[in-house]
Amino acid sequence: MFDLDGTHLATLHLPSDLEVMDIRDGHLTGVVKDDFDVERVVVYRVNDGSN
Q1: Segment 23-31 long-range contacts (CB within 8 Å, at least 24 positions apart)
Q2: What pLDDT, on the 0 to 100 scale, is given for residue 50?
Q3: Cys-Cys link to 10, which of 1, 19, 47, 48 (CB 3.0-4.6 A)?
Q4: What's the pTM?
């Protein structure tokens, strides 16, 4: 992840089937599909390691 100025913020290791939709306010929102192509919304908290 990089901010708007290009500063490196974090490196994320994500599931290969995750389609990232949004990253903001410490959360990553995305969509994954199951074996039947049913979509499921997932939200991951992005921890900067400070807490």
Answers
A1: none
A2: 57
A3: 1
A4: 0.69
- Mean pLDDT, 10 residues at a time, over the chain (51 residues)? 85 89 92 94 81 51
Residue 31 corresponds to which amino acid? V
Token pair for 42? 């997932």
Residue 23 CB-half CA count within 13 A? 11
- Residue 39: per-residue pLDDT: 96
CB 31 within 8 A of CB 39: yes
Q: Are residues 48 and 37 in contact, defined by beta-carbon separation less than 8 angstroms?
A: no
